[in-house]
Design brief:
The chain has two helices and two strands; from the N terminus they run E-E-H-H. It is α+β, with helices and mostly antiparallel strands. The protein has helices at about 30-45, 60; strands at about 5-10, 15-20. Bound molecules: zinc ion (ZN).
């Protein structure tokens, strides 16, 4: 078993990269991916009208869903 070089998976782009030497952008493969992840966080915090792919796609297709109420 070769344990000298271990690889991490970048949470942003999914690319495998060597963790030795440890990159300063850990746990991301590069500064760019780190910024992208940070940008996602900020967008979620602010709540921009930007629809992420893992959001609810049905909301846009049913704009009148709020008018239907059961009271
Ligand atoms: Zn990356």
């Amino acid at each position: 078993m070769n344990m000298k070089s271990s690889f991490l998976t970048c949470p942003t782009c999914g690319k495998k990269f060597a963790s030795n030497p440890i990159p300063k952008s850990m746990p991301f493969c590069c500064d760019r991916c780190q910024l992208i992840d940070l940008g996602r966080w900020i967008e979620e915090e602010i709540g921009l009208p930007y629809e992420p792919t893992d959001g609810g796609p049905d909301i846009e297709e049913r704009p009148n869903v709020r008018e239907i109420r059961f009271e």
